[in-house]
Amino acid sequence: MITTAKRLDTVEEYYFSSKLREVRQLQSEGKSIINMGIGSPDLSPSKAVIEAVAAAILDENGHGYQSYQGLPELRKGMADFYQDQFGVVLNPNNEILPLMGSKEGIMHISLAFLNEGDHVLIPNPGYPTYTSVTNLVGAVPVYYDLKEANAWEPDFEALEKLDLSKVKIMWLGYPHMPTGARGSLALFEKLVAFAKKHNILLVNDNPYSFVLNDNPMSLLQVEGAKEVALELNSLSKTFNMAGWRVGMVLGNPEIIDAVLKVKSNMDSGMFYGIQKGAIAALNCDKSWFEDQNKIYRRRRELTEKLAEKLGCEVYKEGVGLFVWAKLPEGIASAEKFIDEILYEKHIFITPGTIFGSNGEGYIRFSLCVKEEKVEEAIDRF
């Protein structure tokens, strides 16, 4: 009998992978499921993006292997984007590495910097992939609490009390997923100082900055951040290109070069046409963000109405693609609560528990659902 690697004992199948099979089964039985669980944009990329890809497909030189570092004009587009949106100056030749989605960057960074037994600071609640990748590479997850009473920001006194001697990486993501907490430059300054003090690689996962957020920020805006920090970003949410798998990692040349050593052994470059589409997306003007946010703002208002109809208390300060809400008093299990809604009302909502123990007592609604579907969900109650 062929046995699996021991590393698989440390991870479970991704929650949405298994739960969506359950949803599809209900759909196959004729149930009309409204999926408010996942953050997969249902809107389209801009016309300019589609046209750029269509033109690239006809380019006879566009079908071979591409550079591991991406097209020079793509890296320049990413650098210009960061300069325009955040005021962050990056050298496109050695401080930017395009990725096939920022999710792969989590694995590449972990492989580049973590040895077996190294410790990793992971937010609770936070993106589950931080934990699964940490386990897969044989490192040790160490969770730090984020709580509503502290605006979903780290408690630095509590962090300083941890044994930090083996900590190599600290993951964070602001705007925060799943809560939508914005963070602040003052918080980023504290985090950079903390990382420098303890010689920790700080990684900010930043795909939600431009969704319903009037003050987009980058960790790299902090003076000296490049000495200890990387930032991941993505075109998935900002430009409705989730399935295209275009992301980036940004930081100082030595750290980027270490990530490139891993990445260059994992793939053979991003398809030329997708890179051309990404360049067009990065050149979108301010009206693109404004138009997208008009749609998401209407959806958020309706989704908050739905949450309140369920007796939930909405976290009103949240930005990004989700609505985070506290369950009514007396509800003991978020998972039981959402399962009852799934099977009785045929609406799929995400339980906060999949993001960590501090997610118990909360649920998360995606805004990647058309207004008429949210209204239908409200009507089902």
Automatic annotation (TrEMBL):
Residue ranges of every copy of the Aminotransferase class I/classII large domain listed in the record: 32-381
PROSITE patterns in the record: AA_TRANSFER_CLASS_1
Cofactor needs: pyridoxal 5'-phosphate
EC number: 2.6.1.-
Keywords: Aminotransferase, Transferase
MF terms (GO), sorted A to Z: pyridoxal phosphate binding; transaminase activity
InterPro entries per the UniProt record, alphabetical: Aminotransferase_I/II_large, LL-DAP_aminotransferase, NHTrfase_class1_PyrdxlP-BS, PyrdxlP-dep_Trfase, PyrdxlP-dep_Trfase_major, PyrdxlP-dep_Trfase_small
CDD domains: AAT_like
Protein family per UniProt: Belongs to the class-I pyridoxal-phosphate-dependent aminotransferase family.
Protein name, as recorded: Aminotransferase
